Amino acid sequence: MIAEQPVSLATSDGVSLEARMSLPAVPRGAIVVCHPHPLYGGDMDNPVVVRAVEVCAVLGFATLRFNFRGVGHSRGTHDGGRAEQYDITAALSHLAGGVGAPVLLALAGYSFGAAVVTTLVTTSEPPNELAGVALIAPPLAMARTTPWPALANFSRPVLAVAGDADHICPAAELEAFARAVPRATVRTIPGADHFFFGKLYPLGEIITTWARTL
After folding, report:
1. Which is nearest to 32 in space by CA: 85, 101, 74?
2. Residues 110/34, Cβ–Cβ less than 8 Å
3. What is the pLDDT along the chain (214 residues), one digit of tens a residue?
4. Which of 55, 66, 163, 199 is the most buried (most CB within 10 A)?
């Protein structure tokens, strides 16, 4: 377990979000982790989200996980990934302010979170320059309108990781992503499905390697 404190985020469109933040004394960087689809039970306490936060915190990163609008005690309503970009922007700004000094910022998103992260960094201007992006089980077979190929223009480290038994991020789609975004590091975990049941340890190892490249 890592030491986290509850915080409240305020989005640019006036929505209050609940979050958990961890701030080491001297952070080597700061990472926001975004949860999977709220309409299918996704929230910031998802085991994959918690695992990503834990391994980044062990490396000395400040971390922030939050509930998208309409989830848990976050206000607002689900908006299919559109207004959720404001949620990520608020999380980045809050974490940067909490660190209190110029520090590298990165984003990680799991499933729906990965799709919203991709849309934000390819179609909008994040509030701070990003040092990297990690896409955990990106829903390539479902989020067809997400501009995945545009990540080819993102110059910082991109990780895409999924299980080889993931029907929402199937092998053929992941291979197509790798061709479209040749600079990305694309990894698969044998035997893992979309939920990484029994595979959180190897997932954490892969996220750790990505975080060390930032």
Report:
1. 85
2. yes
3. 689 999 999 999 999 999 999 999 899 999 999 999 999 999 999 999 999 999 999 999 999 999 999 999 999 999 999 999 999 999 999 999 999 777 899 999 999 999 999 999 999 877 678 999 999 999 999 998 999 999 999 999 999 999 999 999 999 999 999 999 999 999 999 999 999 999 999 999 999 999 999 9
4. 66
The reply to whether the predicted model has a pTM over 0.90 is yes
User: Which residue, chain included where needed, has tokens 């915190």?
Assistant: 57
List the Cα angle 203/213/158 in 5-degree steps. 65
Contacts of 62 (CB under 8 A, 6+ apart): 21, 22, 23, 24, 27, 29, 30, 31, 95, 98, 99, 103
